[in-house]
Amino acid sequence: MAERKMVSLTIEGRPVSVPEGTSILEAAKAVGILIPHYCYHPGLPVAGVCRMCLVEVEKAPKLAASCATLVADGQVVRVHTERALEARKGVLEFLLINHPLDCPICDQSGECELQDYTYQEGRADSRYRDPKRFNPVEDFGGDVLYVPNRCILCTRCVRFMDDVAHDTVLNVSERGDRALIGKFEGKDLTHPWAGNVVDLCPVGALLSKDFLNKARAWELDRVASVCPSCTQGCNITIETRDSAVVRLKPRPNEDVNKFFMCDYGRMNYRWMNRTDRAESPLVRTEGALRGIDWDVGIHAAASLLRERRVFVVASPKLSNEALYLLSRLIEGSGGAGVFRVDTGDEAPLAGVEDLALRRDRAANVKGAELFGFERSESPLAKLGDGDVLVIADDDLDGIAADDLVRAAQVIVIGTTLPEAAKDAAVLLPITNVAEEEGTFTNLHGRVQRFMQAKPAPGLARPSWLVLGDLLGALGKQNGFYLPSDVFTRIAESHPAFSGLSYDSLGMRGLPVLDSDARTTTRMGEGLGMGQEATR
Ligand code: SF4
Ligand code: SF4
Ligand code: FES
């Protein structure tokens, strides 16, 4: 592929070189200067309608909209001159004429770009004394409410539906100061990816019904993670309040999900807050499961596993670390490991290549396969008489307790105790994806890290820690102190993961070796661990 020509310019006195065709606004970001903007979003076509991004370009007669003006060699750009500031202040004043300023009851408060830029460079007071325009709140269908009084008509929502979702639902209705966002007759925001309009809206005009009045933005804790709900592996942020997950939002990753996530993944978080969790190690004594110390539980499980054929039914929602350690449990025992996965209809996001809600509704199907687990609709079909059956976070839905009788012993290593496994000999409680750190491998073999967002319930421990200790008790392995230690071991022993580490994965991931993408995507990968701006 031909190299793109580089263009050199200065922005606020800082020299910058960017590829030809870059906008001034994006070039400014490259040197850490955020030019205020509303209609511009890197995941949408440029509209140039809000005029909030005006800057001064030396020798140009007028101020330039930096989102729609491309860089040129030798260009001198000034963002914070009196002329540019005055123009942007004027734009803000017009936007606030009809804005209700109901920040104290607005869900967007604290993460609102109108608030941010007004504080940054708007007027301290309003000169407008007339009654403000009023339009009632409208249900846009799906998860979305529209509050027209707050709308600044940036058209991000319209462009997302038209140009990215390819589903024409929204339009700009009316004109002049009566303009507002309307829905075409008979249409609703029910597209499987429609919820992204709420993230894209820079103000509190589009709200999630699910998140409505749940929390103020400043009460939330945010952690980088990976959506566990299908094999696409969209990068997400898990937001918690008082240790409960209250919202999932997309986290940008050019190679996986751009700036978006689907509604199925977005809404599928309540199970992370389940309260009927396994919270203490249990061992069956005198016919009943009784709580014991971790050491006793680990050694009880190890004594059952010793010298036995081990058969594992694993959830493909478990991390690479857990699945690898489970494969080590089976190793040398003559046993096997299987997994099953819920499926549903595939739902692509038409305007983004290779982005879809995938048929397999679990994050780590590829990881399970790489570690030797076999996909099976009947997970107990190959269970041998006298095997030790390890249920690793499969919920055993559709399986009866009688189906387990061929096993000599049943050990549950899971977040819950499934009804069908209530006669198990040992239960070792583990944390779920929101409560531990680890990695998933997506359908294309991209390995991505997720972080812990909330505390473990009761005495539950991370899956990698429990399984590492179990291998230790079996004499197969020294225990691990960190999930990164487990990953290092995976990279040393599994050819597909060779050369990878938590550090090299960063927070955007890298492909495993058998994936063509590895050499190309590895170049220039950021190792940043924080939350990136979606603007
Ligand atoms: S609803 Fe939000 S995204 Fe849509 S035009 Fe209004 S301010 Fe922009
Ligand atoms: S496409 Fe899959 S990974 Fe992405 S948000 Fe939806 S369910 Fe989650
Ligand atoms: S005109 Fe540039 S961000 Fe709107």
Mean pLDDT: 94
Low-pLDDT parts are 516-535
Structural class based on helices, strands and sheet pairing: alpha+beta
How are the strands ordered across the major sheet? 15-14-23-22-21-16-17-20
Q: What bound compounds does this protein have?
A: iron/sulfur cluster, FE2/S2 (inorganic) cluster
Number of helical segments?
13
Q: Any idea what the shape is?
A: elongated
Euclidean distance between termini CA atoms: 29 Å
- Strand residue percentage: 15-25%
Radius of gyration: 27 Å
Helical content class: 10-25%
Number of strand elements:
26
Topology:
Layout: E1 6-11, E2 14-19, H1 24-30, E3 54-57, E4 64-65, E5 76-78, H2 82-97, H3 113-121, E6 138-139, E7 144-146, H4 156-164, E8 170-173, E9 180-183, H5 196-200, E10 206-208, E11 221-226, E12 235-241, E13 244-250, H6 263-267, E14 282-285, E15 288-291, H7 294-305, E16 310-314, H8 320-330, E17 336-339, E18 347-348, E19 356-357, H9 365-370, E20 374-375, E21 388-392, E22 409-414, E23 426-429, E24 438-441, E25 446-450, H10 463-473, H11 483-493, H12 502-505, E26 510-511, H13 517-522
Bound molecules: iron/sulfur cluster (2 copies) and FE2/S2 (inorganic) cluster.
